[in-house]
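Hi all, long-time lurker, first post. I run a small reading group and we've been trying to get comfortable going from sequence to structure in the token notation. Rather than ask abstract questions, I figured I'd post a concrete chain and ask someone more experienced to write out its structure so we can walk through it together at our next meeting. Sequence below, copied exactly:
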Amino acid sequence: MKKIQLRRLIREALEDKVKECPAPTQNVGLNTANRDRAIQADFIKYGPLNVEEPGDYWKKIAKKWDTDVKAAFKSRCANCVAFDISERMLECIPGSVSEPVDEPGTQKDIDKAFKDKPEVGELVKEGVLGYCWMHHFKCHSARACNTWATGGPINKDEDSYDWQKRNLKQAIDPEPIDPDLYQDDTEGEKKNESLRNWFKKEDWVRIDTQGNITGACGTMKKGKKTTRCLPRKKAQSLTKKQRAATARKKTKSKKQFVKNTKAAKVSLKKKKK
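-- Answer (accepted) --
Happy to help. Here is the structure in token form:
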């Protein structure tokens, strides 16, 4: 068999895998393992357990994000960049795909919080089950976590397939995901400071494959391949060649989270007690 034929067969096989339902949507045990990890991990803390009786969950989230409770309350899975409720994904999820928020008081709080974006408020109240591409389990639109990021939800099949292509290993892996996933760049030191605070303080910027600083992190056009982000001071301390090397390492990988090169390595500073 010629190399070109082999490459075509491999490409076609991978394309088929990209269109498969993520393994956690088809395996209750796997979904539960990944969900429980997201609940227990300090850097995730998926919750609240009961959206109608959240206790002090939103206060803790607000403290973690260094914001007020009002802002934290509006940061839900429903409007997270990694929350997938595309048509193809809802077909992957067996059984009911919603667990509505029924308590009138909670509904009023949600309406008030999302009065400027009622469509998101309705999605929160409907309690839609979608797929989380960050932590790989079926999540509830009214819940949240410490790794929430604005820009969602994912509601187009083409965007859903793109996320699966970039997270293919985790999507088709029959085993629970690596407990250290998403801590590569910080080496697990995120115990004392949230990534959100870190991004805010360090002024993170985007680096292209030529080593240029091209703008603020998170400002890429939707659909473009993700480039490397670094704190501005760190980026400016590197040579253009060093910046290019870590950016190329990122773009060449099919993984969503890729370690920096040795020269570009960054880590959170531990707070003094």
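A couple of things your group might point at:
Residues 9-13, 184-193 have pLDDT under 50 and may be disordered.
The two ends are 63 Å apart (CA to CA).
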